[in-house]
Design goal:
It contains 13 helices and 26 strands. The protein is an alpha+beta fold and 427 residues long. It has 4 domains: 92 residues, Rossmann fold; 56 residues, Dna Ligase, domain 1 (2-Layer Sandwich); 134 residues, D-amino Acid Aminotransferase, Chain A, domain 1; 100 residues, Phosphoribosylglycinamide synthetase, C-terminal domain (Glycinamide Ribonucleotide Synthetase, Chain A, domain 4, Alpha-Beta Complex). It binds adenosine-5'-diphosphate and magnesium ion.
């Protein structure tokens, strides 16, 4: 089988790595891919937003299955386009992808179907939003409705911060059309969890839980990023809470989409806040998380192609997936300055080190010139390690990182701290 993977980050590198192990897969193309995955996949110079060119390529090369990494092509309707042209593709239709593409739409689905989420109001102009900010409790959360590359949400501690966020979106139009509507959402207290499920619309396969670390600095300090690291499993989430996540969020959402006549196929990724009243949905994503996927696929046992292919065929009930019981930690190595301005083009040393069988290094923003690796993005590498338990996995990940050097490297040294703290508390 020939597979086309759309995207270029460490998430896509991990997907290519996992697909490569499938007994069905004979060739993988990646669009645009990266130098880091070039030994596993043939890179094709097409951007994820070039939907028609991607469909032409899939037709010409007789691709058996296309898998989409990032959200933009899904929200722009790549699945509908491929389906119209008789091409097999994994992911939700444009209508179903609105779960991620419009936070207001997601809220409507949740409120009509009894899925727990933060209380909220939707505004289409600045004045009434600003008025509301004069008599609400703080902190409060301001969210752009549409896709804003992870920059559209402000957790405002004060009225001044909240007003600035409203003006930025609605007056300065920082997010363009994505900020035409704004949500003002109650602040939820608790621990965040990433819950993924693969579904063909009927069968729902929950994947192992993961926890991201959004803030750039240790102890969750500093600005929010695309994600600085993940780990799995989450020993602090009880079986009872896990059951609630699966039953009250993942299964409920898939059923809700069927009831609403927008059946969902593909990866449903709920960002959750574990509150005292149980899990509440912060947002939906309609694709795999980055960097959650790196940890999840490291733990997944089974044929990833079979899972994706069965989902496309509506036969997800015929495949089984097991999970490596070991702990996995993913640490993102970034460029100094990220998520703001950063420099690139620094020489990376040590990537050819022997990292051992329990470590994988996935490339996010790197470039290879004359056999030499250079930094080429804000997030540069994902270092993934499996270990007997979380401390062991962490040690392996950070030992591997010690072998890699480049100027102005930054990374969090505390990935998994919430789980370790919970375990300390229990002793
Ligand atoms: N209601 C809320 N209460 C507390 N924190 C929130 C709330 N909504 C969002 N956040 C924080 O903001 C981050 C980004 O919000 P999210 O809804 O996931 O949007 P996006 O990923 O599109 O930027 C979350 O990961 C969470 O840390
Ligand atoms: Mg999010």
């Amino acid at each position: 089988m020939k597979v086309l993977v759309i995207g270029s980050g460490a998430r896509e590198h991990a997907m290519v790595w996992k697909l490569r192990q499938s007994r069905h897969v004979t060739q993988i193309y990646a669009a645009p891919g990266s130098d880091g995955m070039a030994s596993l996949a043939e890179c094709v110079p097409l951007k994820p937003t070039q939907l028609r060119e991607l469909a032409d390529f899939a037709r010409e090369r007789k691709i058996d299955l296309t898998v989409v990494g990032p959200e933009d092509p899904l929200v722009d309707g790549i699945v509908d386009l491929f389906q119209r042209r008789g091409l097999r593709i994994y992911g939700p239709t444009q209508k179903a992808a609105r779960l991620e593409g419009s936070k207001a739409f997601a809220k409507e689905i949740m409120s009509r179907n009894g899925i727990q989420t933060g209380g909220h109001k939707v505004y289409e102009s600045a004045q009434p939003a600003l008025e509301y900010l004069g008599n609400c409790d703080y902190p409060i959360v301001i969210k752009a409705d549409g896709l804003a590359a992870g920059k559209g949400v402000t957790v405002a501690k004060t009225q001044e911060q909240a007003e600035a966020a409203v003006r930025e979106a609605m007056v300065a139009k920082r997010f363009g059309a994505a900020g035409r509507k704004l949500l003002i959402e109650d602040f939820l207290q608790g621990e965040e969890v990433s819950a993924h499920a693969i579904t063909d619309g009927h069968t729902i396969l929950p994947l192992c839980l993961a926890q991201d670390h959004k803030a750039v600095g240790d102890g969750d300090t500093g600005e929010n990023t695309g994600g600085m690291g993940t780990y799995s499993p989450l020993p602090q989430v009880s079986d009872e809470h896990l059951a609630a996540i699966e039953r009250d969020v993942l299964v409920q959402t898939v059923h809700a989409m069927n009831r609403e006549d927008v059946p969902f196929k593909g990866t449903l990724f709920a960002g959750l806040m574990m509150t005292r009243q149980g899990p509440k949905v912060l947002e939906y994503n309609v694709r795999f998380g980055d960097p959650e996927t790196q940890s999840i696929l490291m733990r997944m046992k089974g044929d990833f192609y079979e899972v994706l292919s069965a989902t496309v065929d509506g036969k997800l009930d015929t495949v089984e997936v097991d999970w490596d019981p070991r702990a996995v930690v993913t640490v993102v190595l970034a460029s100094g300055g990220y998520p703001r301005e950063f420099e690139k083009g620094y020489k990376i040393r040590g990537l050819d080190s022997d990292f051992g069988p329990d470590v994988q290094v996935f490339h996010a923003g790197t470039k290879r010139v004359d056999g030499q690796w250079y930094t080429n993005g804000g997030r540069v590498l994902s270092v993934v390690a499996a270990g007997a338990d979380l401390p062991d996995a962490r040690r392996k990940a950070y030992d591997a990182i010690a072998k890699i050097q480049y100027d102005r490297m930054v990374f969090r040294k505390d990935i998994g701290w919430r789980a370790l703290k919970a375990q300390e508390g229990r002793k």
